[in-house]
Amino acid sequence: MVTERKKQLTMRKVKIAGLHYDELKTHLFPGDNKEAVAVALCGRSQHEQNHTLTVMELLLIPYDKCEERTSDRVTWPTAMINALVGKAQKDNLAILKIHCHPGGGDFFSGYDDIADHDLFEHLFAWLQTDLPHASCIMLPDGRLFGRFFGPDLKPQPIQKITVAGADIQEWYYDHGMSLDEHMHRRNLQAFGKGTMERLSRMRIGVVGCSGTGSPVIEQLKRLGVGELVVVDPDYVDVHNLNRIIGTTRQDALSQVNKITVVEREVEKVGFGTHVIAFARDIVDRDVVKELSQCDVLFSCVDGVEARHVLNLISTFYLVPLLDLGVKLDADGMGSIDGIYASVHYIQPGGSSLLSRGQYTLEQLRAASIKRASPEEYHRNEYLAAVNEDTPAVISVNIIPAGYAVNELLARIHAYRFVASQDIDTIRIHFNLVKVLHERHPSPCAFFSKYLGWGDRDLLLNLLELGDDQNDD
């Protein structure tokens, strides 16, 4: 079951991980008031009318290798990018040129037009592809803008550029929908018009619509998020009624899909949030492709495999990920030994749920076998146990859900006194009445090698997501 999606206009976008953005900004603005240049190798993400370039690798052109560097131009030997172009040819990747305007001019100069035309004319002659490449300019305040080039060499403006780092930066270059300021009056008083307009333009994915997912969705819809992609293969039963907002006994008796309840409840609020819903498992090509187009992902699942796939989507497509976890140790008779919750913020190219010890590769293997072959899983006594049933109540689930949504808000609207780069994990110890935060600065060796890969024939490098047909 998949809901109908609204008609989309053509969108040209660029995404860059925070670590690459920081490296790029440092190189382009060394303090000498002269232009500098870098070139990025990019993956591609194509879905419906969207074409997104995802930065994989940076080549910083050394200052002393440039033929000319002044306050309004830079020339450099383009043969330096031959190795990147070879990689682009092999895997159908894109080339993105980025240079700076130290004087702050937010436009492409006549010299920029000539330089871009010459570069991309040679690139298209070499690569023999109809797919676009791009050129961007960074200004002293860090803002990026740019344009795509196709084989006809006619520039087309990039409509959105995103930096997925400790903070989430977005620059739009199109006309968005107007905000209903009357309906959003209280939200506007708290976060201001700029943030509310950003939320109204965001597409957010939520995987898992039950325990923590339900209160996450409840908050996002009332904050006026423009589009929600919700994923949950299950239906409502009587055991869910204590924690899924909006569910009724009749929903349980009729075994209504959880996503159907989400659609119904979002529509009732009337903020105009559009919902794309999948009553499917996340290990599904259509689901992965739809989630890859999101600006932020929320992981509200217990399963190891789903969390791993979400971390892969985050890495391949440069989408920040918020993972929620709850543990309630109880004897089933009313005695509670401990209640714990966590919220992990995952920025592409940084530490991962795997490197933070939230699951092991052995648990992942067991979960994959359990999904694909339950009989083999039950026969193999050496596989790690997965999906143990634990108590779940709304009064506990709603706390990490609130922290997770406020974590998103903090990274698009800096309201707190602790820097975002100092907070990777929030841990809530209910019994001790404590909230702690942790840093996890070391990148994950397993995931980092996939940074910005975008679409591949073997989607997410998973055999289960191979395809014999062309995508969109």
Walk me through this protein's architecture.
31% of the residues lie in helices and 24% in strands. The chain has 472 residues and is α/β, with parallel strands linked by helices. The chain has two domains: 11-172, Cytidine Deaminase, domain 2, CATH 3.40.140; 185-465, Rossmann fold (3-Layer(aba) Sandwich). The strands form three sheets. A nine-stranded mixed sheet has the order 9-8-7-6-2-3-1-10-11. An eight-stranded mixed sheet has the order 14-13-12-15-16-17-18-19, sandwiched between helices. A two-stranded antiparallel ribbon has the order 4-5. A hairpin with a 3-residue loop joins strand 10 and strand 11 (168-172).
Summarize the model shown.
By secondary structure, this protein is an alpha/beta fold. It has 13 helices and 19 strands.
